[in-house]
Amino acid sequence: MTAKDMEELTMKEEKINLEAMRHSTAHVMAAAVGKIFKSVKYGVGPTIENGFYYDFDLPNQISLEDLPKIEKVMKEIIQKDFPLNCFRLPVEDALKLMKEKEQPYKVELIEDLARQGEKEVSFYQVEDFVDLCKGPHVERAGQIGPFKLLSVAGAYWKGSEKNPMLQRIYGTAWKNEKELQDYLNYLEEAKERDHRKIGKELGLFVFSDLVGKGLPLFTAKGAAIRRELERFVVEEETKRSYQHVITPPLAKVELYKISGHYPYYKDTMYPPMKVDEEELILRPMTCPHHFMLYKSQPRSYKELPLKYAELAHQFRYEKSGELTGLMRVRLFCLADAHIFATQEQVKEVIKDVLDLIDYVSSVLGLKKGEDYRYRLSLGDRQDTQKYYKNDKAWDKAENTLREVLKEVKAPFFEASGEAAFYGPKIDIQMKNVLGKEETAFTVQYDFVQPERFDLTYVDPEGKEKRPVVIHRSSIGAIERVMAFLIEKYKGAFPLWLSPIQVALIPITDKQLPYAQNVKGQLSDHFWQRGYNLRQITFGQNETMQEKIRQAQLQKIPYMLILGGREEEAGTVSVRTRKGENLGAMKIDEFAARLSKEIEEKK
Amino acid sequence: MTAKDMEELTMKEEKINLEAMRHSTAHVMAAAVGKIFKSVKYGVGPTIENGFYYDFDLPNQISLEDLPKIEKVMKEIIQKDFPLNCFRLPVEDALKLMKEKEQPYKVELIEDLARQGEKEVSFYQVEDFVDLCKGPHVERAGQIGPFKLLSVAGAYWKGSEKNPMLQRIYGTAWKNEKELQDYLNYLEEAKERDHRKIGKELGLFVFSDLVGKGLPLFTAKGAAIRRELERFVVEEETKRSYQHVITPPLAKVELYKISGHYPYYKDTMYPPMKVDEEELILRPMTCPHHFMLYKSQPRSYKELPLKYAELAHQFRYEKSGELTGLMRVRLFCLADAHIFATQEQVKEVIKDVLDLIDYVSSVLGLKKGEDYRYRLSLGDRQDTQKYYKNDKAWDKAENTLREVLKEVKAPFFEASGEAAFYGPKIDIQMKNVLGKEETAFTVQYDFVQPERFDLTYVDPEGKEKRPVVIHRSSIGAIERVMAFLIEKYKGAFPLWLSPIQVALIPITDKQLPYAQNVKGQLSDHFWQRGYNLRQITFGQNETMQEKIRQAQLQKIPYMLILGGREEEAGTVSVRTRKGENLGAMKIDEFAARLSKEIEEKK
Q1: A64, A334, B228, B340: which could form a disulfide with B467 (CB 3.0–4.6 Å)?
Q2: ipTM score here?
């Protein structure tokens, strides 16, 4: 066993201990709730990431104010250091016990277990509280570390809307005070950075009940960020020989039947619309549209690799419970692309894609290996329901992707059963600003759809051949990137993305004309370069301090303080949102500084 | 009677005479068809703009090859100068006559007339051909001017798909040979300029049966034009203090019920989609979305006029027979805006809008008064079904628009019953390149929807007031503008809109590396200025003449001929698509020329 193996084993053990401790905390919480609310019926109480919850059926509503009371009783139980004892009962006795204790949900669970063939079930007891449970647990309540109850929410029994709604209390528990405090700080930070909160404060987007759920409306400020991102992607991709096309965000249902999306994604698609003799549907994916462009004329090997990119509007029916600000929406704009290549070109094509992703990510301030890594998502040869059956093609595709990742020395790991139905993929696993890893977007190897759509090209010998299609995104969904960037920068965007870039702050109303003059000069300077500088003048009726405070609240990168002295000298006194005082500058000098910073996207 | 009145009267008379003559030509054509195809059943044969048609029910298919044969027989009838005699018959006798002649469609028409209360109907006879007809006609066939049969198409009897399909022959007739020839040239020119034809030749867009009717897919080349237009609009409007927002192209049906669109536009909207508890529908208009943004926070008079603009995707269900290339589509992107203003601001706001329209039009090469004029479209106080009832508000709004048009000395005329349901409007009546006038887009005065959505602002005294909303477009639907520009320029776009701007033409393959070098230098030059220059290299295996020919076919503005001499001198020999030879230039010099021309949008 190497030192590294030892270390890994220790970490694993520690994780198991932490899980057991959190699970015991959930039991202690259940015991405490039982002491306070006599009539409680217990649901389930598992551990989750960083903590635990327990579901209760209670006649009265638990509020946040009740949590300290529950915590107090929990602490008493822990202080008395009751043991957590395990005992086993035959199913009949177990049922009898739970019926006696008037716990219908537990009875239902035991019946479920019996139906699955269990003869005996295990219980854990702490003080008077007996719970159906597999364990493991810590031995004594005194071993429970510092904990905190966090929130209350409604949750359907067994997750089904047909069942009663229970009350779920969430909590967290840690090895020591420091870890607990770190985690609570983390939660506080997450709340602070929440893009929904910042988006509202900065007025970037709104939702409307009359428009519908998951359908954000971007204000001019939000749209400014969005447009900068979109143009950045279009220009960078065009420079890299992508053909940026525009196709309609809907098509006949038939198109998605041919592509194979319809059976797989039907549940997350909007319902079809009957128009004349046609049945149209909002698109969940862009690939079939690009295939139609590809097929609109005969193709030669000379055109390959042919790269269609699009800022593609896509509609997905996400469950209303899963909609989250800009993170999860029902309509999004994906920086999408489909590359048609020969077998021989595939590796080079994927390397180019990874290079683009690295470049785009670096511009957004993300480091490979640190902020994101790759996941090689493989198929499952056994699962012919989920995956297209062609072992040889799968092997080849998976090996190609693996080789590319090795050749470019990319940090990656492998995961089985995570592929698309039409082939394996490389997932870009992005850590959010709080360290949580999620799939941001993907590079997919598709050997199925070229077949279904009978895509061909003519090779140098004049023979018809089948291209491979690589599906990829360079930046993911624009809405999601926005959510990510809002949280990353806490709303203090780099200059090029700032919805308002310059605040003009006349010290008194006397300098209002000068402020207009400066604004005009700056506008002209940038307009001549084809750019609209985003400026705001903080006018009348407020003190300079108040104007500065408002500009800071709006996270405007530069503030120009304009007093009598500046007017006389034809200068501007520059302050940054961080509070730096850059002193007086000529307007040209300031404009040059802005230009450079905008261009560098820093 | 003034000279002008006299002139107008003469023109009117001439028009009547021309109509009568064309109508007679249709009868003569029907007579000729009857001579050639004995078993013909006659439908109807009216005049249309610039000509006439007649519908025939025939067992065999008429082809273009048949038209000269028919023309020949027509000329014989005209040469023999048969009179066109009118006679009247009681309905019963008329029915008897048409039954004898085995003309079931005519029988049906007479029955329709009888049902409408007619006791007597009139017929016209030329040679043996007797036709149910109101006239008027010329007196003798010899008075028919030079004519030509143009095309054959299918047409349902009475326009209904439930009825038999007839064959329709179109023709045209004129006073003299010159006018006929002018018209035929015009048709030829229209065919040449047809944006569908040029769009195909230049590969700008395609349609796909699997995607659906009226839903164009833009290739990279078409998308390049579209993007240039869209950015131009966004930047120009942003500069003029419009807030460019982005809102979703669908919403709950309820939103359009409140706005009042749903009852009025229901038939041209896509069907609703049920998603969870929500009923969503693709939007036919953007206004209610912008109202939701307006209502997302309280508004003060200080914010007015508040101008929301958007490149708004809108869906309209156009009948499949009315779909025409990019001109009439089922999804389009409207350069839309809604301006919220106080009553006092309205005139100034509309003047600004007209100024913007003039500017944008001038950039697109259109002259006010020549290429377009204004139509003041008024309501109808009697038609309370179509128009919101509020005589005072209508008077006020109409007067405001009239005053503005007079104050800015705009060329305009008035038209009753052409307003929107919520108020009067100024229509920008654009002449297409062939002189036909159509409404390109509008400026609308809306006093109804602010009421329906309870839009308010707080005035300086702290009182709630109702704003007026001005709906306007600056450039119309991007797809339509594209169609218009393709026809205007016959595909030879100004440099800034050209899908490919520069063609690199190495004289032999030896100069291929130099071509790549030049391309790279030009790309870098523009990339540093945030612009992707659109270039193409005409490579291998073809003669220089062939490469030049291809570049000209693609209407590429500049061709760089690259031979040994150019390579040695580090220059490029510049030719234009018009065939001008601009001689050798240093690369920087050429780049500067391009920059200037792109910037000037000429």
Answers
A1: B340
A2: 0.88
